[in-house]
């Protein structure tokens, strides 16, 4: 069974270490552990990755073309700027779900638009780090049907 890639973009390595009022107190390692545990419960393989570099995220999305069944992605600030990540996702054939920890629509206007949303089957925003778990459950449904 191919894994679901759970990809996090720039600055998300700082989760839990700064700005807990926006992003909560869980670290990225905590989130990845919860996602892995839910993956075991659901019988879905999960591979987590994080990079601060746009090109690295693009390369992993290319890798996903042959190695992943689906992509759950929080592109961080690249959501609002990166046509390159959108183009890479458009070359991936499986389901894509976009996650934002914060409610980007309640924040500054420049966060209201995400290039990635044009490709995603669904978008979760403002559910905190629980959004990753909701996305994994949804991914399992998408893979089943
Ligand atoms: O809400 C989200 O998940 C975001 O994708 C997070 C990005 C932000 O640029 C997007 O607009 C919304 C930023 C991630 C920064 O993460 C930090 C976590 C802790 C401390 C500092 C930054």
Describe the structure.
This protein is of the alpha/beta class and 145 residues long. The chain has one domain: Rossmann fold (3-Layer(aba) Sandwich). 39% of the residues lie in helices and 17% in strands. The chain is built from 5 helices and 5 strands. The protein has helices at 20-23, 28-42, 54-67, 83-90, 130-144, and strands at residues 4-8, 46-50, 70-74, 96-100, 122-125. It has a 5-stranded parallel β-sheet with strand order 2-1-3-4-5, sandwiched between helices. β3 (70-74), α4 (83-90) and β4 form a beta-alpha-beta unit. α2 packs parallel to α5 and α3 (54-67) runs parallel beside α4 (83-90). The model has no long low-confidence stretch (mean pLDDT 97). Ligand CA2 is lined by residues 11-12, 14-15, 18-19, 23, 74, 76-77, 79, 100-102, 104, 111. Residues 11-12, 14-15, 18-19, 23, 74, 76-77, 79, 100-102, 104, 111 line the site of ligand CA2.
């Amino acid at each position: 069974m191919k894994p679901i890639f759970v990809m996090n973009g720039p600055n998300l390595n700082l989760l839990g270490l700064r700005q807990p009022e926006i992003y909560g107190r869980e670290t990225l390692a905590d989130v990845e552990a919860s996602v892995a545990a839910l993956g075991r419960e659901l019988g879905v393989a999960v591979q987590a990755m994080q990079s601060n570099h746009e090109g690295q995220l693009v390369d992993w999305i290319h890798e996903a073309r042959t190695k992943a069944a689906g992509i759950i992605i929080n592109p961080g600030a690249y959501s609002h700027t990166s046509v390159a990540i959108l183009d890479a996702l458009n070359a991936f054939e499986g389901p894509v779900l976009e996650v934002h920890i914060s409610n980007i629509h309640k924040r500054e206007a420049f966060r209201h638009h995400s290039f990635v949303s044009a490709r995603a089957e669904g978008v979760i925003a403002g559910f905190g780090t629980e959004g990753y778990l909701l996305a994994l459950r949804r991914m399992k449904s998408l893979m089943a049907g």
